[in-house]
Amino acid sequence: MTAPDTYTRRGLLVVLSSPSGAGKSTISRLLLEQDKSLSLSISVTTRKRRASEVEGVHYHFVTMRDFELMRDRGELLEWAEVHGNCYGTPRDPVEKALSSGRDVLFDIDWQGASQLQAAMPDDLVSIFVLPPSGAELHSRLVRRAEDDEATILRRLRNAREELTHYTEYDYVIVNDELQSALASVGAILAAERVRRRRLNGLDRFVASVSDALVTDGTEKVSD
Question: Given 3.40.30.10, 3.40.50.300, 3.40.50.2300, 3.30.70.260, which CATH number is that of 8-41+101-211?
Fold first, then answer.
């Protein structure tokens, strides 16, 4: 008896973007805890490490010189300068994950999302996270207590520019209530995983199902 045909799925690039303080990093963390088939793309950055961050878990922290070498050698799938620091995505681990059918989550800004869209449009699912209000965004940045006042003001100024890019994303959610926002992201991911064009070998699978059907009143015997 021959083995039944089946199909496989190429991995997804799932991008979450938002102004600082809108909640994309919290949503990303909770999504990763819930969905073990999803892995986080670990960016390299020239930014100084915050007290709450762990090398190799949140970012790979590198010097500007090392970052420039990676960029010039074509080792970054995308890169951007944000708030005076550089961020980038190493190419090799992402391509390996997609080929093996694993989904990769990106917690990046609109500049990086735009580059990913240009480089790998068929693999990308992009989600923009909005704050419920400007006042709440300001309050969240203050409550985070990880930046000084000057940095907070710079992030708020940059947020006005970042908000204009929501139209470039596939999906937009408002993070007013965290669990609701998380559920929306999970629903988007579930739907995109079964999008027809992402399923490799589906034609053969459907043909095998069709061939096994009894259409003349007699039992079909497999080889």
Answer: 3.40.50.300
